[in-house]
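To the wet lab folks,

You asked to see what we're planning to order before we commit. Fair enough. Below is the target structure as tokens, and below that is the sequence we designed to fit it. If anything looks off to you, flag it before the synthesis order goes out.
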């Protein structure tokens, strides 16, 4: 169970704060809900307490996990690229990873898209996924590592400076 004012992560939305726990009657049954405000866009979510784990609501990553994610981003040995795979299949795979709520999966999408962008110009859809992945990773890492989000973004840009051009506005 999460506590009021605790930071949590909701899949594909990012880091949020539990503002309160509320009971509501729905269909004749009373259920408890976490009221979570997503920090990036101020959206408020109602997440059933009994079903929170099933929808992917999870605790913020630890500092150790944050460091592990930075290591995952630096390691390019698992890069498969886009050979033999059409964009639609990659898009579905990447979208599923972003929705998984697993920070390692989101970091994988970020790394893949940054490295694919080295060899070809990313499509509009790829750029949107890249921006979403960058936002999700940098927001969570900034809280997990107690760093400024822009500083985390700059650290990731530096990791990929060999593939990012000067004009890149990530």
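Sequence we intend to order:
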């Amino acid at each position: 169970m999460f506590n009021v004012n605790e930071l949590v992560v909701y899949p594909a939305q990012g880091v949020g704060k539990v503002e309160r726990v509320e009971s509501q009657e729905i269909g004749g049954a009373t259920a408890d809900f976490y009221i979570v405000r997503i920090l990036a866009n101020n959206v408020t979510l109602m997440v059933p307490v009994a079903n929170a784990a099933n929808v992917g609501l999870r605790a913020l990553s630890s500092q150790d996990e944050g460091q592990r994610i930075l290591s995952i981003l630096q390691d390019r040995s698992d890069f498969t690229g886009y050979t033999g795979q059409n964009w639609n299949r990659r898009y579905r795979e990447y979208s599923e990873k972003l929705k998984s709520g697993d920070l390692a999966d989101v970091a994988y999408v970020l790394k893949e898209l940054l490295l694919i962008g080295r060899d070809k110009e990313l499509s509009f859809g790829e750029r949107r996924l890249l921006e979403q992945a960058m936002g999700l990773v940098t927001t969570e890492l900034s809280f997990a590592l107690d760093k400024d989000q822009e500083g985390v973004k700059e650290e990731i840009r530096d990791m990929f400076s060999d593939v990012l051009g000067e004009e890149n506005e990530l």
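Structural context that might help your review: The chain is about 45% helix and 20% strand. The domain at 7-59 is CATH 2.40.10.170 (Thrombin, subunit H).

Thanks,
Computational group
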